[in-house]
Amino acid sequence: MKTIEEADRKARNIVHGWCAAATAVSWVPGSTLVLGMADMKMVNDVAKVYRVQSFSIEGVTAAIGGAVAGRGTSEAALVWFPVVGWGIKALIAGGVTKAVGEIVISYMRERSPLVAK
Which of 7, 15, 97, 106 has the fewest CB atoms within 10 Å, i.e. is most exposed? Predict the structure, then answer.
């Protein structure tokens, strides 16, 4: 990436990919743990795009913690409602992943050494 705008586009593509993955696998029992690890991979991928060499994992965790906790709670309840619950769970997982991604993009963008065109 040479500019912040290029990084923005690439980062959003990364987030969209992870949203699709979260939506696709969230119906699987126990997927919340896997999705949490996927969120951390997404954080690292976005950091690389913005050329952020180091960041406070505590700061990122605090920024995304509420969204991830909400996903875990709602998904735990919905797993007991076959088909309809699983579908809702998938939508929540995709939506929460998108929200987390946007928070991470904002966080990394502020710390990026890249400049605008």
Answer: 106
